[in-house]
Design goal:
By secondary structure, this protein is of the alpha+beta class. It has one domain (3-85, 105-136). The chain is built from five helices and eight strands. It has helices at residues 8-12, 14-18, 24-35, 121-135, 137-144, and strands at residues 41-44, 49-55, 64-73, 76-85, 87-90, 96-100, 106-112, 153-156.
């Protein structure tokens, strides 16, 4: 189990213990499996419980963060997992054009019963495959579009 689960925010809030904290170990395992890094942040927000970890893109350009948010939604638990990053589209010579690299975006959500303590296996598989595809999306796109003027490059933005 991760040290994230033992954070003080889980010991001080009855709401967090009752609504969603049982999913945190399963969420931590999923993020660790995808990023191969220990999730470093787990805290309670006004919305719910947030767990995040660093994400390294296969091409080593830019940086990313996998963020999971567990919260109550219409009498059930909802978990949103997204990939945030500082990558922008560029020309093949890496001149930035300022457009966010939408090819690397990823968001997955599911709704579970309030007493859920494990993420469903199909959701875990979908998120794992989705993050892998999103991380490699520029390469996949460029392989499909062999004409050079259709291809994208990736650069890093100063904003994040």
């Amino acid at each position: 189990m991760s040290g994230c689960y033992e954070a003080p925010c889980f010991q001080t809030s009855t709401h967090s213990r009752l609504q969603g904290s049982a999913l945190i170990p399963s969420t931590v395992r999923l993020l660790r499996r995808i990023s191969e890094c220990e999730p470093s942040v787990a805290h309670l927000t006004d919305v719910g419980i947030v767990v995040s970890t660093k994400y390294t893109f296969p091409d080593q350009i830019g940086r990313g963060e996998l963020i999971a948010l567990v919260f109550e939604y219409r009498g059930q638990l909802r978990i949103d997992i997204r990939l945030e990053h500082n990558r922008v589209l560029s020309t093949n010579n890496r001149a930035r054009n300022g457009h966010h690299c939408f090819l690397n975006d990823f968001l997955a959500s599911t709704v579970l019963p309030l007493d859920a303590d494990e993420l469903p296996t199909p959701f875990v598989a979908s998120v794992t495959k989705g993050i892998q595809t999103a991380g490699d999306a520029v390469r996949i796109y460029n392989e499909r579009h062999t004409v050079s003027w259709l291809q994208f490059g990736v650069a890093v933005t100063d904003k994040w």
